[in-house]
Amino acid sequence: MNAVGWFDIFVDDLDRAVTFYEAVLGHKLEEIVDPAGETKMMSFPADMTSYGAGGSLTKSKYGAPGVGGTILYFSTQDCAVEEARVADAGGKVIRPKFSIGDYGWVTLCQDTEGNMFGLSSF
After folding, report:
1. Longest dimension (CA), the chain
2. Which residues are paired to 33 by β-bridges?
């Protein structure tokens, strides 16, 4: 079993956050409907039967965006490619591509909502 089964990235402006992540990652996000109508979510592409975790951008009264103690890392072929898209999409590169030794490369960024996230490649 994977340690992480799902993730939420909390946002203030869902449309702005969707535009940012679609531009940086090059993937369309899909709406997830909350039957109770309390939360709005847009899911990253995922196959819930495969290895890894799915997740979404989430606008909810139960959480808020911002830099904190948790950083989500998106897997990429070469994190420099997605890093190059961050500023044009309205975000900020916090730490450009750097080596993590035997584990590959990482870029640290901030999205349009103030959330810190990482891009990771081997």
Report:
1. 46
2. 40
Per-residue pLDDT of the chain (122 residues; tens, 9 = 90+): 666 778 999 999 999 999 999 999 999 999 999 988 889 999 999 887 888 888 999 999 888 898 777 889 999 999 999 999 999 999 999 999 999 998 899 999 999 999 999 999 98
**C-beta atoms surrounding 75 within 10 Å:** 12
SS3 per residue for 53-92: CEEEEEECCCCCCCCCCCCEEEECCCHHHHHHHHCCCCCE
**How would you classify the pairing of strands 72-75 and 116-121?**
parallel
Distance CA 122, CA 111 (A): 23
